[in-house]
Amino acid sequence: MLMIRLAVPADFSVLLSIERRAGERLRGHVAFPVFAAHGLTQDELADGVRQRRLWVVEYDDRIVIGYLLGGELDGGFHIRQMDVDPAYGRRGHGRALLRHACMVGRAEGYRQALLTTLRDVRWNAPFYRSEGFAELPIALQGEQMRAVLTHEQALGFPMHLRVAMAKPLGD
Length: 171
Description:
This protein is of the alpha+beta class. The chain has helices spanning 12-24, 32-37, 42-50, 93-107, 125-130, 143-155, and strands at 2-6, 54-59, 63-73, 76-84, 112-118, 134-135, 162-168.
């Protein structure tokens, strides 16, 4: 059975471990060194808990197998980071987390969800596209989204493979 709940500080070490294991799936990709060098921090996770923007997904026997860290960006709901333990991947857990976060965002009055991701990794942009996200053209990117992309470039991300995406969350 699948359960999504707000994270608590006791989850942090598991979440950081999931992030590392999920990042290993990118080994050999040009973006791998950037992901490996710039993971989430305890402070970022603590902020997510305080803001009620960090959810975990538990599987059967209450094992935390994934998380989604959200926030706000340009007045929209920002999907900052989402990872599922590769041992539990491709079973709909990430999809359930994403749908839950978007549902919360919509209930809170956000009109769109925003994120940045890799366009050439099938569990990144193609996955988000299957959930209703579309590429956000530069002309429609807000100041904060442009700042996120500038920061990603400074970290060393291959920007020709990065894409900003948005999904309407309804009226």
